[in-house]
């Protein structure tokens, strides 16, 4: 899969890191399908940027926690792009919530997006990949989940969902190996600071990271490209955290 030109890729979650990944793949000749639920303007700007640079990008509205929406996204993308060779599951809900505030609505809201949607999109994409004789699925988890233990209070549903994404990745990899569909995950650490990060918080993360800096989107882009180019890695979760887990 080193030759990317003309391949179709679906990316769920087109903000920040997702935008960098989409632009990098488009620059290598891949045709991009971007999904959004409510944030149409952000995804539309990304698609416009890709197209203005000579690439091809389409956007689709979908509530990926619903099986019909996930199926419709994949079917429409396959029809427009001509194929679905790669699925990158990046859609995520990340917010702090106390234990007392976690009710069924909060729990389902996080797990539906961070876990269920990844499975539903994979299930819908696999038949198209089988037609192509193989494919790639890349899920996104979190460095804390990859480290195997929670570190921060207030993120119970998020941690559970991201830990389960690792299990989903491993199980899908086994199920789909005979179809030459490779399934892996990326577990980002301090890559891009949230918009509301203070200078003090920013420096604290740098101090807690052995490499002494935030990674930046390019570190995730390089990992995605590596997983697309490699033909013998499946069921792995690659932690990209600058050694943050070591402290």
Q: Could you describe the 3D structure shown?
A:
The chain has 247 residues and is of the alpha/beta class. The protein has a single domain, classed as NAD(P)-binding Rossmann-like Domain (Rossmann fold). It has 8 helices and 7 strands. It has a 7-stranded parallel β-sheet, sandwiched between helices. The termini are far apart.
CATH superfamily: NAD(P)-binding Rossmann-like Domain
- What portion of the residues fall into strands of 2 or more residues? 15-25%
Number of DSSP helices? Answer: 8
Question: Within the CATH hierarchy, at the fold level, what is the topology?
Answer: Rossmann fold
Largest sheet: 7 strands, parallel
Query: Gap between N and C termini, in Å?
Result: 36 Å
Helix content: 40-55%
Alpha-beta classification: alpha/beta
How many DSSP E strands? Answer: 7
Radius of gyration: 17 Å
- Uncertain residue ranges: none
Question: Strands, helices and their partners?
Answer:
Layout: E1 8-12, H1 17-27, E2 31-36, H2 40-52, E3 56-61, H3 67-81, E4 86-89, H4 104-132, E5 135-140, H5 143-146, H6 156-176, E6 181-188, H7 199-208, H8 217-229, E7 237-240
Parallel strand pairs: 1-2, 1-4, 2-3, 4-5, 5-6, 6-7
Helix pairs in contact: 1-2, 1-8, 3-4, 4-6
Q: Summed up, what is this model?
A:
By secondary structure, this protein is α/β, with parallel strands linked by helices. It contains 8 helices and 7 strands; from the N terminus they run E-H-E-H-E-H-E-H-E-H-H-E-H-H-E.
């Amino acid at each position: 899969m080193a030759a990317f030109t003309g391949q179709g890729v679906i990316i769920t979650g087109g903000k920040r890191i997702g935008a960098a990944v989409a632009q990098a793949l488009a620059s290598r000749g891949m045709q991009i399908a971007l999904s959004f639920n409510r944030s149409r303007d952000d995804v539309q700007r990304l698609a416009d940027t890709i197209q203005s640079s000579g690439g091809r990008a389409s956007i689709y509205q979908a509530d990926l926690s619903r099986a019909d929406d996930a199926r419709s996204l994949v079917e429409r993308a396959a029809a427009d792009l001509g194929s679905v060779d790669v699925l990158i599951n990046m859609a995520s809900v990340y917010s702090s919530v106390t234990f007392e505030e976690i009710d069924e609505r909060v729990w389902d809201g996080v797990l539906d997006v961070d876990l269920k949607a990844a499975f539903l999109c994979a299930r819908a994409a696999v038949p198209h990949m089988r037609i192509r004789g193989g494919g790639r699925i890349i899920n996104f988890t979190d460095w804390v989940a990859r480290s195997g233990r929670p570190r921060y209070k207030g993120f119970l549903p998020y941690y559970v969902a991201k830990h389960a994404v690792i299990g989903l990745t491993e199980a899908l990899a086994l199920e789909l190996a005979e179809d030459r569909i490779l399934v892996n995950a990326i577990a980002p650490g301090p890559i891009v600071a949230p918009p509301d990060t203070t200078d003090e918080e920013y420096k604290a993360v740098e101090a807690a990271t052995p490499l002494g800096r935030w990674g930046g989107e390019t570190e995730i882009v390089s990992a995605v490209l590596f997983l697309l180019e490699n033909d013998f890695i499946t069921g792995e979760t690659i932690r990209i955290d600058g050694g943050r887990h070591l402290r």
